[in-house]
Amino acid sequence: MRKKEPEDTGFDINSIPGIAGRSPKNSCEMPQALINRLPVYFRCLRDLINRDVLKVSSQELSDICGVSPSQLRQDMKYFGGLGQRGYGYNVMRLYNSISETLGVGRKYSAVIIGAGRLGEALYESRLFEQRGVWVKGVFDVSREKTGKEFGAVTVRGTEELCDFCRENRIDIAVICFPCLEKEEVTGLLKDCGVSGVWNFSQVRLDGEELGVPVENICTGDSLMMLTYEMSVRDNRKDENKA
Length: 242
Fold this sequence. Notes:
CATH architecture of the largest domain: 3-Layer(aba) Sandwich
Distance between the termini: 48 Å
Strand content: 15-25%
Largest sheet: 6 strands, parallel
Number of strands: 12
Number of domains: 2
Radius of gyration: 21 Å
Mean pLDDT: 84
CATH superfamily of the largest domain: NAD(P)-binding Rossmann-like Domain
Number of helices: 9
């Protein structure tokens, strides 16, 4: 991996630029497994940029991303073959192409619905801005939480949600309520006009029912996958001792 010369100014990830790279012509035909790997590629390439790395070989990048070199080269074919034999990949160019595919450069806007600990933690993190999403409002059903300051925004009541979303052309609703019923959640989203939902609630939302893409996040499921893998490993150890 070659680094930039000292006189170069580098790249500031805190202010994501407009994407100038090439998006793949056949991105709509990408296999789901590759789509699932794109955020990993995005994150690893961003880290390389922050380290002022200009180019990277397929072997180096595959090691960083945790995939085989052959898998990485196959994945990169969807981006028009940006790698060159004997040179590797231009890090910024590849990052731009993957960013464009992921929609990072579109500058989507979002609201957080649920001003509890999770909503506050998400708002205060840099997760949104690093991915080109700008949080413009925070809402809650509780009168006790309305009026609370969340950085540069004030928590509003959910009765203002739909008007706010339409007036500000909000793209994404981030659901952070821990235990609302499905009907309550869908009721909040009805007529808001958002284009996507990131759902951290305990109810599973149906994208077809809502008419927009939905990403249901269940951290408990992820934890159980970890404990499963640990249990399998411990069982093998026990069998070997027997």
